Every structure is written in structure tokens, then in C-alpha cells.
Amino acid sequence: MLESESYHCPYCGEPAEALLDLSAGDQSYIEDCPVCCRPIEFELRTDGGEWQLDVRAEND
Fold first, then answer.
1. Please, is 55 exposed, middle or buried when counting C-beta atoms within 10 Å of its C-beta (0-12, 13-18, 19+)?
2. Best CA proximity match to 52, nearest among 3, 1, 14
3. CA gyration radius for the chain?
4. HEC sequence for the chain
5. pTM of the model
6. Cα separations (Å) of 13 from 1, 4, 20, 21, 56?
7. 42 near 52, Cβ under 8 Å?
8. Where does the pLDDT of residue 38 fall: very low under 50, low under 70, confident under 90, or very high at 90 and above?
9. Where does the source fall among the domains of life (predicted)?
10. Which residues, listed in sequence order, are joined to residue 2 by a DSSP beta bridge?
């Protein structure tokens, strides 16, 4: 099950969108900002239905 979620880069503040795979359970991963290319840490918590995404700078 895929979900799309908008977020703002914690470095440059530009809006972007993440594609989330809710079927994989809780996840923590790093992706580069599509605008400024700095590493963003994503933490997804899900039970397969409800979910929460936290986005922060890599060293926060």
C-alpha cells in the first residue's frame, strides 16, 4: 500500500513529496532533498492503516 505525503525540507524549507510504502511496517531511512541535496532522515511509524511520518535534518 503506497501513500504520498508532502513535507518541507528541514534545511532549505522547500516543499517536496515522499512516497511511503505502508506495507513494509515501521521504517527509518535517509533520502537527499530534491532541491538542496542535503540528507534528510525519515522515520515512518505505521500499523498498516494509520501512520505518522517524521522528517528531520540528519544530525538532529
1. middle
2. 3
3. 11
4. CEEEEEEECCCCCCEEEEEEEHHHCCEEEEEECCCCCCEEEEEEEECCCCEEEEEEECCC
5. 0.86
6. 28, 18, 20, 24, 11
7. no
8. very high
9. Bacteria
10. 21
